[in-house]
Specification:
17 helices; GMP Synthetase, Chain A, domain 3; seven-stranded mixed beta sheet; 24% strand; Rossmann fold; alpha/beta
Length: 565
């Protein structure tokens, strides 16, 4: 085993030992023995209450509206009281949120889960048909939203709709005069329903527990301590001073949707825990408005979802703003090509040491693996080391574990895995086996403890019986100087079974030619991997709210309704 992996393992053992900072033990979780952190909170309501310790530090910011951590706790308590008094929401009830990112979204969510309700996290980009499907599936007692999105809720037998922006004064009345609810909560109680991306069909509802979302935060904290210890050990070995700890609390630009795990746990819960600030903006993603907000609010952390990365690094006004406060940049929604990683480091030099990516899903809840800093730069096609308390196996189509370095289906086992799909036992049984292993649906491999994601299983292309992984081709095309972004997919072909197709978006001012792109790809790719069908366009690729390209929309398998809203 490589020296670095031995070093990493030794540091994990120190951190997770009974006398370590993050002691870990095996415990029974839903009938299975899995690793858990000993010192953990048992409910999201405990996390809300803990936010009060950060007092007058800003937590939620939108324009001139600024809510401190202590004010946030008071507003959650008031909102929970109003939901009980006015709408009779009690433990076990389902209630939906259909709104854009905002402080009100955050307050409403934590009011509901503090009552023991199960929050249906509706995608703010959904069409009326998609909203109808989610409502019929989960039957919430109430939909809390904003005016723009509530207009899309179909009429008929829907639950009551409440505009939580227009009704803010009523919902948050008497703030400071209420305590948080005291209904008993268990860490394995359901708290949220996350809807899967739905890139191939109707979205399913992944039911997530308090334990799952809290585990996301705790494992990220553990991993942060591990990365700091690794950096310190490396610096000491090289005769350099120890790395400095952050001197200011994080200030996060919230462009990650709150209705996904990355936005809710990865940004909101983590910053609730550490006393950080979430800065919101209204409207569609606009790179220049984000640059201005980074300068004004001295943003320190930003996650680039999907097409945000290319749009940011190619923007012609990038140099007009002071972006030096940004020290952490992450990628989300899909792997970032090595070329995009390089351009992000050049664009945000102060964040070079903290450019990172994480891998997980609505179903896994917790982050399975992550990569950042110098290790990510040295190995840009990897997703990173599997995180502590997460168990990963690579399996073949028959469910058998494969050797290191061999591609297969990525399966994960942890305390944080979803409880199941709402009202879909068959899909749950297909995803989670009797030994508590979740099949993620992704293809990858483990090499020396490092996880590589090669492709979504459903995206793999078969050309004359040869496996073709789109991500390999996408990385090559992304490196072309005239390509802003691209997507590669399989198309039916009478001679080869499938042909490789590519949709390529030209960078501003660039002209792309299929023959030249074909030659560019053929320089590093085998002939059967080179696309034979090309779609060159100027408009961005269609993506869902998680930042994933909806390839079915490019091949005609799915309509493009509402995807760019």
């Amino acid at each position: 085993m490589p020296a670095f992996d031995e070093e990493r393992r030794a540091l994990i053992d120190r951190l997770t030992a009974p006398d370590g900072i993050f002691p870990v033990e095996e415990a029974d979780v839903r009938g299975h023995r899995v690793p858990v952190l000993v010192n953990r909170r048992r409910s999201l309501r405990e996390m809300v209450a803990g936010s009060a310790a950060h007092g007058d530090a800003e937590f939620l910011v939108l324009d001139e509206r600024r809510i401190t951590h202590s004010e946030f706790v008071d507003l959650v308590a008031a909102h929970a009281a109003a939901l009980t008094e006015d709408h009779e929401i009690t433990k076990g009830d389902r209630a939906a949120i259909l709104a854009a990112n905002s402080p009100d979204w955050v307050i409403a969510y934590f009011a509901l889960v503090s009552l023991g309700a199960v929050v249906c996290l509706y995608n703010g980009w959904w069409t009326a048909d998609e909203i109808r499907h989610a409502t019929e599936l989960t039957t919430p007692r109430l939909i809390l939203g904003d005016a723009k999105r509530l207009e899309r809720v179909p009429g008929g037998s829907t639950p009551p709709n409440v505009d939580m922006i227009a009704d803010r004064d009523r919902l948050q009345r008497d703030a400071g005069r209420h305590r948080l609810p005291d209904v008993p909560l268990d860490e394995d109680d359901p708290c949220s329903i996350f809807f899967t991306s739905g890139t191939t069909g109707r979205a399913k509802g992944a039911v997530v527990s308090h334990r799952g979302l809290i585990g996301f935060v705790d494992v990220q904290m553990l991993n942060g301590a591990l990365k700091f210890m690794i950096a310190s050990a490396r610096n000491e070995a090289a005769g350099r001073p120890a790395p400095e700890r952050p001197r200011v609390e994080p200030r996060v630009l919230m462009t990650s949707p709150l209705f996904h795990v990355s936005g809710l746990s990865g940004s909101t819960l983590i910053n609730m825990s550490v006393g950080g600030t979430l800065v919101f903006r209204e409207g569609r993603f606009d790179p220049e408005e984000c640059f201005a907000l980074i300068e004004k609010e001295r943003i320190t952390a930003w996650t680039l979802i999907g097409a945000m990365g290319p749009r940011v690094v190619e923007h012609d006004r990038l140099g007009d703003y002071d972006l030096s406060s940004l020290t952490n940049v992450g990628f989300g929604g899909a792997p970032a090509s090595p070329d995009l990683q390089r351009r992000v480091r050049e664009t945000f030099p102060n964040a070079t040491a903290n450019v990172a990516i994480g891998y997980g899903s609505s179903e896994s809840v917790g982050v399975i693996a992550s990569h950042g800093g110098a290790d990510y730069e040295a190995n840009p096609t990897a997703t990173g080391h599997v995180l502590p308390t997460m168990q990963v196996e690579i399996r073949d189509e028959l469910g058998r574990r494969v050797d290191a370095g061999v591609d297969g289906r990525i399966c994960v086992r942890s305390a944080y895995t979803m409880l199941g799909y709402w009202n879909n036992d068959a899909a749950t049984a297909e995803a989670i086996d009797d030994d508590f292993w979740l099949d993620t649906g992704d293809i990858g491999r483990l090499d020396d403890g490092v996880l590589y994601i090669d492709s979504r299983a459903r995206d793999m292309i078969l050309v004359n019986g040869e496996n073709v992984y789109p991500v390999e081709i996408e990385y090559r095309l992304d490196a072309h100087p005239g390509v802003a972004e691209c997507a590669v997919y399989g198309l039916d072909d009478s001679r080869t079974g499938q042909a490789v197709g590519a949709t390529v978006v030209a960078s501003p001012g660039a002209t792309l030619d299929p023959d030249e792109l074909r030659s560019w790809a053929a320089t590093t790719l085998a002939g059967f991997k080179v696309p034979t069908r090309w779609d060159i366009r100027a408009e961005p690729l269609p993506r869902n709210a998680a930042g994933k390209v909806v390839k079915g929309a490019l091949t005609g398998e799915r309509e493009l309704s509402g995807l760019d809203e």
